[in-house]
Amino acid sequence: MRVLIFSLLCIVLSPLLIAGVIIYTWRVRRISVRQNISGTANEPLGGRLGMHVAGTRIDEAAYRLAGHLPSYTKLSRFLLLDVLGFASKLSGFKGGFFAYPGERPSKLMSMMSHRTDFFDRSIRDSLSRNENPPKQFVVLGAGYDTRCYDLPKDLDIQCFEVDMAPTLNAKRKALELAGIPHDHVIFVETDFNQETWMEALLASGFNPNLTTYILWEGVTMYLVEKAVRDTLSLVSTLPRGSAVGVDFFSEDMQKGNGPYEKMSKAMHRGIRYYSESLIFGVPTGEQLSAGVESLARDSGLTLSRFEHTGSKEDKLPPWYFFAHIDNL
Ligand SMILES: C[S@@+](CC[C@H](N)C(=O)[O-])C[C@H]1O[C@@H](n2cnc3c(N)ncnc32)[C@H](O)[C@@H]1O
Question: Structure pTM?
Answer without folding.
Answer: 0.96
